[in-house]
């Protein structure tokens, strides 16, 4: 994941945009976890999220690798990192790397 981050930064992608993409993915995964708890199928999920069915299939597969609490924790990490990046002068890339590491180790 760190290598992908470095590659995106090297290609000129802004750190805030990268964080937004990561946060969006976790939000989608959280929606998937909620839909699974309500026994919704991929077609219902696709309609709710306004995404193609094949994307929802991939989200469902990815969602099986995470628990709801884990996804929620990752969303909280994203929000905390966003606040840090916007309000301090710390090394933004390093803080994003730390966030990625924290999502993996817990």
Gap from first CA to last CA: 15 Å
What is the rounded Rg?
A: 15 Å
Tell me the total number of β-strands: 0
**Structural class estimated from helices and strands:** mainly alpha
Beta fraction: under 5%
Number of helices: 6
One letter per element, helices H and strands E, the order comes to HHHHHH
**Low-confidence regions:** none
Overall mean pLDDT score? 91
Task: Provide keyphrases for this structure.
106 residues; mainly alpha; elongated
How would you characterize the overall build of this protein?
With 106 residues, this protein is mostly helical. It is built from six helices and no strands. The longest helix is centred in the N-terminal third of the chain and has 23 residues, at 15-37. It is elongated, with a radius of gyration of 15 Å. The two termini are 15 Å apart. The model has no long low-confidence stretch (mean pLDDT 91).
Q: In terms of topology, how is this protein built?
A:
Blueprint: H1 2-10, H2 15-37, H3 42-49, H4 53-63, H5 68-87, H6 92-105
Helix pairs in contact: 2-4, 2-5, 3-4, 5-6
């Amino acid at each position: 994941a760190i290598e992908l981050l470095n590659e995106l930064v090297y290609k000129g992608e802004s750190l805030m945009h990268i964080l937004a993409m990561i946060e969006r993915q976790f939000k989608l995964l959280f929606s998937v976890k909620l839909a699974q708890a309500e026994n919704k199928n991929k077609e219902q999920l696709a309609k709710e999220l306004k995404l193609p069915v094949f994307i929802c299939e991939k989200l469902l597969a990815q969602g099986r690798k995470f628990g709801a609490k884990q996804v929620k924790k990752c969303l909280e990490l994203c929000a905390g990192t966003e606040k840090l990046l916007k309000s301090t002068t710390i090394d933004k890339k390093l803080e994003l790397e730390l966030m990625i590491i924290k999502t993996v180790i817990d």
